[in-house]
Write a structure and sequence with these properties.
5 helices, four-stranded antiparallel sheet, alpha+beta, flat, 206 residues
């Protein structure tokens, strides 16, 4: 592959991954579970002992029927970085609305994604949801324990857990008028630089 071909392939792959994320939201909100699970790798890990699209479809069906009447997922900021021609990772913001019983729950979150091109098609290899808040539309989530689902005890989300900079910022007020500034991250290393090797958080998804 020539340099020009590689650059075109990178542009086409970037667009395909952005389309993948938008297809995730539409297929989930419209409850087309076949369209939805086909966005994931055929051997997607669903639990410790289960893998594959059929198991993912069952898990989703149970979750969506038990917890929500309707949902709307609106994706925003999206950063994509490539590990190689067929593997990438990224972060995408999502602002969500949920009809759940008598309450209308709004949510702000981000996904840490791993993408893989399989047989020429970009798929999710994994999605790690990191939540900032979930709360009734009329109840701003001020204070701690911002995950406030109806009928459940509030708990902390993991919105900031991927990023050591959050705790570093609050723990280290400036000590000089002209603080040091690190060198910019190289291409495809912005997210990894921000992560600083932090472990992935344990996340409650139900």
């Amino acid at each position: 592959m020539t340099d020009l071909e590689a650059r075109i392939d990178r542009l086409e792959s970037t667009d395909a991954i952005r389309q993948l994320v938008s297809k995730y939201s539409l297929s989930l909100d419209m409850r087309d579970l076949d369209a939805h699970v086909n966005l994931f790798a055929p051997d997607i890990r669903v639990s410790r002992d289960k893998a594959g699209r059929s198991h993912l479809k069952r898990w989703l069906d149970d979750t969506l029927r038990l917890q929500f009447t309707g949902t709307s997922h609106h994706v925003g900021n999206h950063i994509i970085e490539f590990d190689d021609a067929d593997h990438a990772h990224g972060v995408v913001y999502s602002k969500n609305e949920h009809e759940t019983g008598p309450e209308w729950v709004i949510m702000q979150m981000m996904y840490w994604d791993n993408y893989e091109r399989i047989d020429g098609v970009w798929c999710f290899r994994r999605r790690l949801p990191c939540y900032w808040y979930a709360t009734d539309l009329n109840k701003p989530p001020i204070g701690d324990m911002k995950m406030r689902w109806p009928g459940r005890e509030p708990y902390d989300g993991s919105f900031h857990a991927l990023w050591p900079s959050w705790k570093e910022f609050w723990a280290n007020p400036p000590q000089a008028d002209e603080p040091e500034v690190a060198e910019p991250a190289p291409l495809d290393e912005f997210l990894n630089r921000m992560r600083r090797g932090a472990p992935e958080p344990r996340i409650r998804v139900r």
